[in-house]
Amino acid sequence: MSVSWKVYLLAIVSFLVGTSEYILSGILDKVSLSLGVSITAAGQLITIFSLIYAIFTPILMALTASMDRRKLIMTGLGLFVVSNILAVLLPGYGLFVVARIIMALGAGVVVVTALNIAAKIAPEGKQASAIATVVMGFTASLIIGVPLGRIVSDTLGWKSVFGGIALLGIIAMFILSAAIPRVKGDEPIPLRQQLSLLKKPKVALGLSITFFWLGGYSVTYTYLSPYLLEVSGISDKYLSIALLIFGIASMIGSKIGGLSTDRWGVNRTLSSGLILHIVMLILLSMVTNTFIGVMAVLLLWSFSAWSSGPTQQYHLTTIEPEASGVMLGLNQSMMQLSMAAGAGIGGVAIQKVSLASITWIGAAGVAIAIIAMFLLYRMNSRTEMNIQHKFETSQ
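Below the sequence we write its predicted structure tokens.
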């Protein structure tokens, strides 16, 4: 099996993990009604998942740094499958929270390891595209997973979605065990040493881009279903179509972002994606009660938002090349922290201000990401000038 097909297999696994995380945003109203909790309380299930993922993924990756990557991804996938089975079987809100916690632990290990394997088996010069493919699998859950989950939950009940994910996870374990080669782990880096990277200004700025970009996105996306129904004026029967269009654009954006980064570089790809992201969030608040208009804005918003995903992943590996695995792990944690923060801030905004306010708050978050990117660019330019000056004076 060629390297590209192995990378696509990893993308399929990341698709399953992404579906388990994102599906709640597509069935939030059903979960809320079934469990007898408010929309905000149901939304916090996403926050809980993200926090557990963010906090424990670096710890688990540090503890398993030297483990063979194939063995590690199989272990994480096994834990993930068990958690989805528990999500089906355990009754009530409290026990569903327990299942989500276990799910997040397995998910973090699976995604970071999949990214790590993809980067290691990819040919030289194709690492960004390989990472983009795995990220594309994660975002494909927005395309197929979320709208399909909405349809399945309409006919079989929302818990059946997690049963389906568990079944597909078991199948994926058999395929991966046969297809993925043994990939050596990294030299163990103590967690304290990993976290010490955060003291470096460039690393901190780089990770802050992730936090504000995805945090701004999450403020709106977490509550997208109720927003489209109540603010945009989309009919319930068209909601699955809207989520499908949103998802298709996210997948295309992710792939184009990786290709653009390989061809035109990080700064041009990232800055253009973030600017378009802000414009579309603002337009989403203005375009209402026209299905085509809302769909056009959703398409461009999703495309721009996810074009930044692989670009930023690759960007961070270039900041600390000798600790690329650690940087990918830290970035995954930062992504989940930002998702948690976005879901939490969005929930507060809905309660204290209005549902319509979330697009403006999201746009403000992305604007801060652009400022952080500009500061990092200035810092890199200054460093390059100093190196060049030292070289010239030594001649």
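Residues 12 and 137 are 6 Å apart (CA to CA).
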